[in-house]
Design brief:
With 354 residues, the protein is an alpha+beta fold. The protein is built from 14 helices and twelve strands. GO terms for molecular function: mannosyltransferase activity.
């Protein structure tokens, strides 16, 4: 279960870390012969991305959406020498100071050549003077077959300004196009080092960790000595800064689940409030204690939207104070024996340190 939790967090990190990034995930098609199409592809002079040359840094022209081009200006690229059947991720990354909306699609060669509106867009792009081309050489493989795709990137300016010049002629946008193959078709290769780090923590640290908050009282002394050791958690050895970064990437509902599953760890890092015995009794039973912040009856979606604007500590203060109501709405998780144990450990630590 600990290993599954580690892997799940890797995926959560991968999915949520999307600031100024758009991506498309695809599976490379079967290899095809290029004897009839190689001359046509060479004439297009498209920038090419391959598993060997996986990154292109360029700047592209953008335009505001129009009825004819609701997704902005078209740009075309070739993805070549792919491994048939392998999963890939293609990311477009750009700076926050250049607000742009991207639409990314991949097409097989036959689909583009057989679809009138796609071949028309491709032909118009090939004739444009504003395009920047890199690595355009078309060389056939030894057997004349390869797995390849067209990459269609549409870019629309996504801002409003009183500067008429920028509204009439939006400036070029600097972008990185990154092809990221999946390892075992499970997760992107770029996340490999992160996954290894987390798995090392999971295998190397968890088995040696002891329950937190054990108290030992020497027989020859009236003063109790509290012995605390790291909590039994796969990420207990992570630096606080890394824990904060992970928490910042989680949506409220995921953070709430993480907090209740590992309450001592998050409380020790200032991401969850200290607990008292009455509050734990309120959370773990159906005791009708008055909530500190009575909820206005509103849909769970609105409550979650409000939580997205709160600090993690304030989110947990709100949840702890209104657990019963939030649990009935499905925002807070139902209590399990493991969660109750974590909350009681957190109370024991607080009482011992107090």
């Amino acid at each position: 279960m600990k290993l599954l939790g580690c892997i799940a967090l890797v995926f959560a990190w991968a999915v949520t870390a999307l600031a100024n990034t758009e991506k498309v995930i695809f599976i490379a098609p079967s290899s095809i012969g290029l004897s009839d199409d190689s001359l046509s592809l060479a004439a297009l002079q498209l920038s090419t991305i391959t598993p060997e040359k996986r990154t292109i840094r360029t700047n592209i022209k953008v335009d505001f959406p129009t009825p004819e081009s609701p997704d902005g200006l078209s740009h075309w690229y070739l993805l070549r020498t792919l491994n048939a059947g392998q999963r890939y991720e293609l990311r477009v990354c750009w700076a926050a100071v250049q607000p742009t909306a991207f639409q990314i699609d991949t097409y097989e060669v036959a689909e583009v050549f057989d679809t009138p509106h796609l071949i028309q867009k491709l032909a118009l792009y090939a004739e444009r003077a504003d395009r920047r081309t890199q690595n355009t050489t078309i060389t056939s493989t030894r057997d004349g077959k390869e797995s390849l795709l067209f990459l269609h990137v549409q870019a629309a300016a996504d801002y409003f300004t009183t500067n008429k010049t920028r509204m009439l002629d939006p400036p070029f946008v600097d972008i990185d196009l990154i092809l990221d193959p999946y390892l075992w078709n499970v997760f992107p290769q770029s996340l490999g080092p992160t996954a290894v780090y987390i798995l090392v923590l999971a295998f190397g640290g968890c088995d040696d960790a002891q329950p937190i908050g054990n108290a030992a009282t020497p027989s020859n002394s009236s003063t109790a000595t509290l012995t605390t050791v790291p909590p039994r958690h796969p990420f207990y050895a992570m630096p606080s800064e890394l824990i904060f970064d992970i928490v910042d990437l989680l949506p409220p509902e995921a953070f709430i689940n993480l907090a209740f599953a590992n309450y001592p760890l998050l409380s020790a890092n200032g991401l969850a409030p200290a607990l008292s015995r009455p509050r734990v009794a309120y959370i773990t039973t159906n005791t009708r204690l008055p909530a500190l912040f009575p909820l206005i009856r509103m849909p769970a979606e609105i409550t979650l939207q409000i939580m997205r604007h709160l600090r993690p500590l304030d989110v947990m203060r709100f949840v702890v104070a209104n657990y019963q109501d939030l649990a009935r709405q499905g925002i807070a998780p139902p209590m399990t024996a493991e969660m109750i144990a974590q909350l009681r450990i957190a109370v024991g630590i607080r009482r011992g340190l107090g």
